[in-house]
């Protein structure tokens, strides 16, 4: 039976474009995987603790040397990695905040990059490469070639490298200029935003169009 892990991270609630994208993608996944199951994780509502001096070294210390705080932190890493291993597809909503990924997404990535859990400590080989990883990114502005802030997107580019030790390979689908409908100074860019959003939905539609409907 197919299984989906659906992860949101936006703090915008119903106003979030990335949540609209992940909800649409999750619906399309379910439609194309009859009998499939879904696990949902909301990093904004239930954030993963950031690394600190008390527990952050848990993934670098042998288990038998763990303090209680480190043991608890490592157990969380194990649960997060097992969520991924149990899934055929992971959907991650990734809004762009101050030109980077939300810190709660960074914390999730920090926890899943763990020797013995997501990669082989001897060979360095990633252990999660069989899982499809779809990242749905929303950008308030536009950062593509030819734009004044080309290259200022440090979320989509970062996550490719951030999860690389695990073997996950993100497929990134972007909706740009999401601030255009709410920022009067960007009103002239609304048609470009609408096209970008429609293009993102169309790309989502193509993801599982050829899925085995008997799965």
UniProtKB/TrEMBL annotation:
Lineage: Bacteria, Bacillati, Actinomycetota, Actinomycetes, Mycobacteriales
Pfam families per the UniProt record, alphabetical: Flavodoxin_2 (PF02525)
Signal peptide: none
Catalytic activity: 2 a quinone + NADH + H(+) = 2 a 1,4-benzosemiquinone + NAD(+); N,N-dimethyl-1,4-phenylenediamine + anthranilate + 2 NAD(+) = 2-(4-dimethylaminophenyl)diazenylbenzoate + 2 NADH + 2 H(+)
Listed cofactors: FMN
EC number: 1.6.5.-, 1.7.1.17
Cofactor: how bound: Binds 1 FMN per subunit.
Record domain Flavodoxin-like fold: where: 3-157
Protein name: FMN dependent NADH:quinone oxidoreductase
Residues given in the record as FMN binding sites: 10, 16-18, 138-141
Keywords, alphabetical: Flavoprotein, FMN, NAD, Oxidoreductase
Family of this protein: Belongs to the azoreductase type 1 family.
HAMAP family for the chain: Azoreductase_type1
UniProt source species: Mycobacterium asiaticum
Xref: Gene3D superfamilies: 3.40.50.360
Subunit structure: Homodimer.
